[in-house]
Amino acid sequence: MRRTTTSLALAAAALLLAGCGSHSGTDTGSAGKPSAPASSAPGKGGCAALVQLKAADSGRTVCVAKGGEVRLALDGTKSRPWKPVAAAGTALKGINAGFVIQPGQATAAYQAVAPGTVKLTSSRPLCAQPTASGQVSCKGIQEWTVTVNVR
């Protein structure tokens, strides 16, 4: 009986670590590869007129032409929601994203109004919060950041 209890505890711990601790910090597409940010034809100075971002774009630097737009959608869940996107810098101005927000999702849209650099950030829990007493929780946070250069 003791061996079975120990084995079950070890198996449960392994599953928790596999589900929470091994997350790479980026979401991937159906093929398991991060996808490149979608953008339209180049605008002024070789920068895109439209940049569309998602969770897999974390850590990237993108360039958008002055007058262009940056749109993003971070798909989350009720149990692992994204925080609202924060923009540090004055080169982007928030505009109406124009799309429906699902529970846990963070969306934003910006117009490039001046040359400069803006850092966009958000975060969410790596693991869902326990729903019952005695369940294990993790304190990990998935951070998302993209640097936007406006030219």
Shape: elongated
Biggest sheet character: 8 strands, mixed
Which class in CATH terms? Mainly Beta
| CATH fold type | Immunoglobulin-like
Please state roughly what percent of the residues sit in beta strands, choosing from under 5%, 5-15%, 15-25%, 25-35%, 35-45% or over 45%. 35-45%
Low-confidence stretches: 1-36
| CATH architecture tag | Sandwich
Residue-averaged pLDDT, rounded? 76
Protein name: Lipoprotein
Organism: Streptomyces filipinensis
Signal peptide: 1-24
Keywords: Signal
Provide a brief overview of the structure.
It contains 1 helix and 8 strands, in the order H-E-E-E-E-E-E-E-E.
Describe it.
The termini are far apart. The protein has one domain: Immunoglobulin-like, CATH 2.60.40. Strands 1, 2, 3, 4, 5, 6, 7 and 8 form an eight-stranded mixed sheet that branches. Strand 1 and strand 2 form a beta hairpin. The N terminus is likely disordered. It contains one helix and eight strands, in the order αββββββββ. The protein is elongated. The protein is mainly β. It comes from Streptomyces filipinensis. Keywords: Signal.
